[in-house]
Amino acid sequence: MNGVEELRSKYLRYNALAGFLLLVTGVTAFASSSNFKSHFLFMGIITALFMGLNVARLAVCRGCNEKRLGEIAVQGGWLWTSFSLAFLSLAPAKIYGLPTVSLAVVELLSVFLLLSGAYFLFLVKRETGVALSV
Amino acid sequence: MGDKGVEEGSLEAEAKDYYGDFATLKVPPHERRTFLNQLMVFLGVLAVWAAVFGGASMANILDAKNILIASILGSIALGIIAFLTGLIGSYNGVSTYVILRHSMGRFGSIAAGIVISGISAALWFAFETWLFGVIMNGVFPDSFLARVDVAAAWGGILMMTTALIGYRGLASLSYLVVPAWFLIIPLALAASISLKGGWDQLFSVEPENPQGLAAGITFVIGLYIVGATIAPDITRFSRKPLDGPLAWFVHVVFFMPIILIAGGWLQLLAPGSNLAAEMTAMGMGLAVLIMGILGQWTTNDNNLYSASLAWVNAVPRLKRWVWVAILGISGTIVAVLIARGYGISLDALLSFGTLLGTFIPPIAGVMIADYYIVQPLFLGRKDPRTRYQFGPGTLYGAIRWPGITGWAIGSFLAYWLPQQYPGIPGALVGLFSGIVVHIVLMAVCVSSKIPYDIGKWRETETGW
Questions:
Q1: Which of A108, B226, B245, B462 is the S-S candidate for B83 at Cβ 3.0 to 4.6 Å?
Q2: Half-sphere exposure of B19 (CA within 13 A, CB side)
Q3: Domains and CATH numbers, chain B
Q4: What pLDDT does B354 receive?
Q5: Entry pTM
Q6: Chains A & B: contacts with CB separation below 8 Å
């Protein structure tokens, strides 16, 4: 495996994992909210759709050069960071009535995704030289 | 009066990015950005409470169905206008104020740039910095850091930072904010509607002062016509010619109605309320706080960025970041003074900003007419990529009087006609007057061999 292919494989794993964790966050909030459940269903669908698209873009990026790979990875990193920000800021709203334990899980996962997204962005920037404003 | 027309191709001198962020030069290929990137930057401009409040104003004159229709039709009209201005930016890779050197001459471009962004966008920066303080105060009324004046002070400085960095700063922040914003706002609106009586109730409410659909469409166009005019400031970074213009079209046609409808529908159901306050009442204070800070930031840094580009085009020597600092600090001081009530009237500021807004659509009209009609049909410059020449050594007219005249007549009609006939949309009158006057005067000049430039100006190696 050459260097670019190794990077692609790594970024694919990171994006897939982030997508999975976002899905877990959404399902947890959906299952435990007592009002407006459809909101978390909507957020889960949107999140899964966009993260799925980005994972697919990375999957078919065989033979891409490092710059192109970096661009797709950075866009994925921003997506998961922003989506986690949405979960983090919406979940505590009292209208959703999330039980304390579920709320703690959702918030912890969101904070983890937010921080890991920031780390991933700087990792991709360092490894591919692609700007964060790609 | 000087030559018949003094544009020449640029000399082969090498351009130096003296001002930073290619403020007066063509954006080089390695700095160009994708469709998605530009879409994010434009959406970042829309992701702001002021846009939601703008939508709320429609509830005074339209019912729910007409708010929906006016938002969509007005947004489509804006999308078409900005597609045309944005395409000029992406073909040529230069800012709005540099583009205007061809249709209005070098000094005309300075004057137009100062009106469009140098003053107007700087005023908006001050207003939105004050609004930021108001929103922070609404979420944390007892906190010292959220006092309107204190929050405006730290918010203004914060919002200056990404504009200091330049386009990269604007784009990075937009990537973070935009997906979250456009997830949260529709959900908050849906929850508010449910809690305030539901969809049936919404579609049965009548506005206080009902007016026709045309008034609503005009209102929507007026809200964002300045943004449509200065679209080239961002589309100049397009990798492919259609990237930026399409991004503008998509963001305004598919996303702007969401924001306007969110404000308008909620206002219909609960007159006097606003979405930020409703969200706080629903326990979404954290979302209001985060989206308030970041959303206001992604919009206001664009205001400052465009204002700095306009001033760089107008005044030699000072670099772009210096202008950002000057405008950012003075705008923040104005916002703090408004908050403290130290003699600066917000109404006067907004009235002045609105008045300037009257003068801007004709500039877009002149720009569109010159690039798409005058240059190819009257001056024989068919290829859109080489229609305009820029770069060190390029010779421009100092004043291109047909363009200036189109701007002046368009501005007068946009200001005067709606006062005489209130149903007439000033923004559209200005736009189309600018187009027609510029075309007619240039047609007469070219066919009668009348000089259309007064004096000459040769571009320096820094692009000034």
A1: B245
A2: 28
A3: 26-369 (1.10.4160.10)
A4: 66
A5: 0.85
A6: 83
- Give me Rg for the CA atoms of chain B: 22
Residue B10 has pLDDT above 60, yes or no: no
From B428, B159, B305, B32, select the one nearest A67 (Cα to Cα): B32
pLDDT tens string A27-70 = 999 999 998 999 999 999 999 999 999 999 999 988 888 888 99
Report ipTM for this prediction. Answer: 0.92
In sequence order, the 6+-apart residues with CB closer than 8 A to the CB of B347 are: none
Is the pLDDT assigned to residue B6 strictly greater than 60?
no
Least CB-CB distance to A95: which of B283, B286, B289?
A: B283
Identify which of B267, B228, B254 has the alpha carbon closest to the alpha carbon of residue B58: B267
The amino acid at residue A76 is G
Tell if the CB–CB gap between B282 and A50 is shorter than 8 Å: no
Long-range contacts of range B419-422, CB-CB < 8 Å, 24 or more positions apart? Answer: none
B161 touches chain A (CB under 8 A): no
Q: Across the interface, do B175 and A133 touch by the CB < 8 Å criterion?
A: yes
The set of residues, in sequence order, having a beta carbon less than 8 Å from that of B412 and lying 6+ positions away, is none
Phi, psi of B240, rounded to the nearest 5 degrees: -110, 150
The minimal CB distance from A90 to the residues B33, B169, B287 is found for B287
Return all residues near A118 (Cβ < 8 A) that are at least 6 apart. A81
pLDDT of B2 reads 42
Q: What is the pLDDT of residues B209-240, one digit of tens each?
A: 888 888 888 888 888 888 899 999 999 999 99
Residues pairing with B458 in the sheet: B395
Per-residue pLDDT band for A1 (boundaries 50, 70, 90) equals low
Q: How far apart are CA A53 and CA A59, in angstroms?
A: 10
Buried-exposed string B8-33: b where 16+ CB fall within 10 A, e elsewhere? eebeeeebebbbbbbbbbbbeeebbb
Is residue A35 within 8 Å of residue A68, measured between CB atoms? no
Asked if B28 contacts B229 with a C-beta cutoff of 8 angstroms, the reply is no
And the tokens for B390?
């820029």
Tens digit of each residue's pLDDT (9 = 90 or more) over B21-59: 888 889 999 889 889 889 988 988 888 877 888 888 888
Among candidates B164, B169, B460, B122, which has minimal Cα distance to B313?
B460
